[in-house]
TrEMBL record:
It comes from the Eukaryota. PROSITE patterns: DENN_FLCN_SMCR8. Pfam families: Folliculin. Transmembrane segments: none annotated. One of its GO terms (cellular component) is vacuolar membrane. It comes from Torulaspora delbrueckii (Yeast). InterPro entries: FLCN/SMCR8_DENN, Folliculin, Folliculin/SMCR8_longin. This is UDENN FLCN/SMCR8-type domain-containing protein. PANTHER family: FOLLICULIN, FOLLICULIN FAMILY MEMBER. GO terms for molecular function: GTPase activator activity. Residues 51-240 form the UDENN FLCN/SMCR8-type domain. GO terms for biological process: cellular response to amino acid stimulus; positive regulation of TORC1 signaling.
């Protein structure tokens, strides 16, 4: 049986293409412990490309796990068993000249990367290079059987793309609400138009920011984990 996984990737201004979160399924009946990752140094991650866990959780937690039916679904910052695969995939996603970030699906396949359905989106942020941050939701079928992979994608096309669309819409809508809130606060604190002008914004130092902060949702990655697990479980049911 082909392995399926869902990942959310970001093009970090400092580190380039990075996986923010990847959700994988364990074998039926397994505990999924083989997919967990141990505590690891986070020095090589900045705010922009790091997975955020809600405050109150114990230090050292680097994985989320859920059980649906007879499968276990695990979400982590990186995949310990598919690290090279995901690295190849996200480099292709963010280097693809035809990749646009307006919610239009992109599909590519080869023997190294498997079959991938990608939907890109972006968020406005004056603290980012170019005043925007770019992300990709990626559904991957890790298989060299092109025919069966394409059949699975075609049978679940609307389900997967609509599922990605709902998650992306949630992120974008919460981000827009946060932008409006920040704008209101700035207007209340500063009555001088020059201080909020485009000149100063254009010369502002660019700083990394977490996706959960952009959306003002500390539980964002928990929601993504649950949504990814539901999508994968539904696809495995059809595949089985």
């Amino acid at each position: 049986m082909a392995s399926m996984l869902i990942s959310l990737a970001h093009f970090c201004d400092k580190h380039g293409p990075r996986v923010l979160i990847v959700t994988q399924a364990g074998f039926p009946g397994s505990t999924g412990d083989e997919l967990l990752v141990p505590s690891y140094p986070t020095d090589s991650y900045c705010e922009s490309c790091s997975l955020y866990f809600p405050s109150g959780l114990k230090d050292g937690i680097r994985s989320m796990k859920s059980n649906i039916d007879d499968r276990c679904y695990v979400s982590t910052q990186y995949s310990s068993i598919r690290y090279q695969l995901l690295t190849l995939i996200i480099r292709r996603c963010f280097s693809e000249e035809t990749m646009i970030y307006d919610g239009t699906p992109l599909v590519f396949y080869d023997d190294l990367r498997g079959l991938n359905l990608v939907i890109g989106f972006k968020l406005a942020d004056e603290n980012a290079r170019g005043n925007e941050r770019r992300y990709c939701m990626i559904f991957t079928i890790d298989s060299k059987d092109h025919e069966s992979s394409m059949k699975l994608i075609s049978q679940n096309w609307n389900f997967i793309t609509n599922g990605f669309g709902k998650m992306i819409s949630y992120i974008q809508s919460t981000h827009e609400q946060e932008l409006k809130r920040q704008t209101t606060l700035k207007n209340e604190k500063c009555s001088f138009g020059l201080m909020g002008g485009s000149y100063l914004r254009g010369n502002k130092i660019k700083i990394p920011r977490r996706l959960s902060d952009l959306a003002s949702d500390n539980l964002l990655f928990v929601r993504i984990h649950r949504w990814n697990s539901f999508l994968l479980n539904s696809c495995y049911k059809i595949y089985d």
